[in-house]
Amino acid sequence: MAVDIQSMEDIHNVSFVQCDIDSDHDLLNEKLSGRKFDVVLSDMAPKSCGHRQVDHANIINLCELARDIALEYLNPNGSFVTKLLHGEYEQEFKRSIMPHFSVVSYFKPKSSRKDSSEIYLVALKFKG
C-alpha cells in the first residue's frame, strides 16, 4: 500500500491512498483498518524553508506521524524506515523508537551529498 499527499501513477498490485497523513486521520485509518504490514517506509519531507532548525523540527513531526503508523500497523518482527535530518531532536526521536524494535541504526545513502544532513533511521524486528 502506498500513501502520498500527491497523486501517483498506478503500480501493479499496489493499493494507493491519496491523503495528508497529518490531517486525514479518519480516511487513513479507514483504509488501513484491520491490515498489518511487514514494512513501513517513510520518505516524507516537508517543504524546506531554508532555516535548518525549523526544517529539522518539521521533518521530525513527519517522522513522529510515520512512527505512530508503524507502531499501530506493523506485524511483529516488521521494519520501519524513515527519512530525517540531523539536528536537535534526532536522538530524542531515536530514543522513542528504541523500546519497540530490537535493532535501531542510521543509514546515509551513497547518493546523498556528503554535506547533506539527510539520513535514514532504520528500525528492525518490531517487538509488537
TrEMBL record:
Chemical reaction(s) catalysed: uridine(2552) in 23S rRNA + S-adenosyl-L-methionine = 2'-O-methyluridine(2552) in 23S rRNA + S-adenosyl-L-homocysteine + H(+)
EC number: 2.1.1.166
Entry's Gene Ontology molecular function annotations: rRNA (uridine-2'-O-)-methyltransferase activity
Methyltransferase among keywords: yes
Family matches, as InterPro entries: RNA_methyltr_RlmE (IPR050082), RNA_MeTrfase_FtsJ_dom (IPR002877), SAM-dependent_MTases_sf (IPR029063)
The keyword rRNA processing appears for this protein: yes
Domain Ribosomal RNA methyltransferase FtsJ, residue spans: 2-126
Keywords linked to the UniProt accession: Methyltransferase, rRNA processing, S-adenosyl-L-methionine, Transferase
Role, per record: Specifically methylates the uridine in position 2552 of 23S rRNA at the 2'-O position of the ribose in the fully assembled 50S ribosomal subunit.
Name of protein: Ribosomal RNA large subunit methyltransferase E
Organism lineage: Bacteria, Pseudomonadati, Pseudomonadota, Alphaproteobacteria, Rickettsiales
